[in-house]
Design goal:
This protein is of the alpha/beta class. 44% of the residues lie in helices and 16% in strands. Strand 1, helix 1 and strand 2 form a beta-alpha-beta unit.
């Protein structure tokens, strides 16, 4: 099938380092790998990583990707049979173009974008945007979400739309066959690691606080943080003020093809999300931690307990003392780390990008069959 994957979000450069960018590259490459001919249509190409292995990548200017005629022209020129679109505030033109052409339009919802933008980025006129969101969800032939709470959210907005939960995946082979990277630490070091964006809700500041509390009693334990974001400077200052410069490595953003070897150099992985009553993340880092065979310390929120299972140590969300205790316990128990890491690797086999691509293909096929049935009725 000839598919278009559209990302009109100005905040998601296709070749960028953030998790959303990785998701676009991985799911489109997986769709191509299982036999589809995939054209990625994006607003921002960005830089820092190789392009996905797809049939074609087309970058449109902002005024073009918001124009149904321009988007429709690409769909016609490429002979596109179905569209998967990553939901964004800019979503709209692709839906109109697909409807005009009678092409199946599947909306991929990775977050409640309007509420997120209002909370964190100062979006105004929220009622207007929520109504626009309702219309967008309702008009889709089907919706794919990455987490069960998002499924409930979408159905709360548009009760009649078909929704399928397809969790984020991982390229298991890539994370199991690589060699560990060299962090330049002493041979007996125990490495606690985090990979992700330095944003408030990711809880990196809490992780630094927890490490600061346990560091004096565990001289061989080091903390490695990979990623960038709005909290990077503040975290750097915290590390310096706490006298932890020699014990904490802040690597900045790294290309995704270097993440597997970095994770293989960790002994413990952390996903220290802060408490949120509407926790809707489907953390890609978590399934990558699993594939790397790492025990994971995480707050018991969202789908993480089901995804991680017996492969990690959960703590009450927001409890920094419990986070520190979990880290200290694993740091001093190598046998338990090995046991949990082996369980993590086994568990990762359930979360391949190939499986995710197969699930999305099923959604597209079901939506196409439903459209045919409606037209014949």
């Amino acid at each position: 099938m000839r598919l278009a994957y559209v990302c009109a979000d100005r905040g998601v450069p296709i070749l960028g380092h953030k998790g959303a960018s990785v998701h676009v590259r991985e799911i489109t490459a997986a769709l191509q790998a299982i036999g589809h001919e995939v054209t990625v249509v994006c607003r921002r190409l960005g830089a820092g990583n190789p392009p996905p292995k797809v049939h074609a990548v087309a970058q449109l200017e902002p005024e073009e990707i918001s124009n149904p005629d321009k988007v429709g022209g690409i769909l016609v020129a490429r002979g596109i049979e179905a569209v998967v679109e990553r939901y964004a505030l800019e979503t709209g033109a692709t839906r109109v173009a697909a409807a005009r052409l009678g092409i199946v339009h599947v909306l991929e919802v990775n977050a409640p974008i309007v509420l997120e933008a209002a909370r964190y980025r100062g979006l105004g006129d929220v009622d207007h945007w929520l109504e626009r969101e309702r219309q967008t969800f309702a008009a889709a032939d089907a919706v794919v979400v990455v987490q069960r709470r998002l499924e409930s959210y979408v159905l709360g907005v548009a009760p009649k739309v078909t929704v399928k939960c397809v969790s984020n995946g991982v390229n298991v082979e890539r994370f199991t066959r690589c060699e560990p990277g060299d962090l330049g630490l002493p041979p007996a070091s125990v490495v606690i690691g985090f990979v992700g964006s330095m944003k408030p809700w990711h809880g990196v500041d809490d992780l630094v606080t927890a490490f600061e509390r346990i560091a004096p009693q565990h001289a061989n334990v080091h903390l490695v943080l990979a990623g960038d974001g709005p909290q990077t400077d503040a975290i750097n200052r915290r590390i310096s003020a706490a006298g932890l410069t020699g014990r904490v490595r802040l690597l900045g953003a790294i290309p995704h093809d270097r993440v597997p070897s970095l994770l293989r150099s960790f002994d413990i992985a952390v996903a220290p999300y802060r408490p949120a009553p509407d926790f809707y993340f489907g953390p890609m880092k978590v399934v990558e931690y699993l594939a790397a065979g790492l025990p994971i310390v995480y707050p018991a929120m969202g789908d993480m307990p089901q995804i991680i299972g017996a492969s990690g140590v959960a703590y009450p969300p927001g409890d920094i003392a419990a986070l520190g205790s979990a880290l200290a316990g694993l740091a001093t128990d190598g046998e338990r780390r090995l046991h949990l890491g082996a369980a993590a690797r086994r568990r990762s086999m359930r979360h391949s990008w190939t499986h995710a691509a197969d699930e999305i293909t099923g959604v597209i096929q079901a939506a196409a069959a439903a459209a045919i049935a409606r037209s014949a009725a």
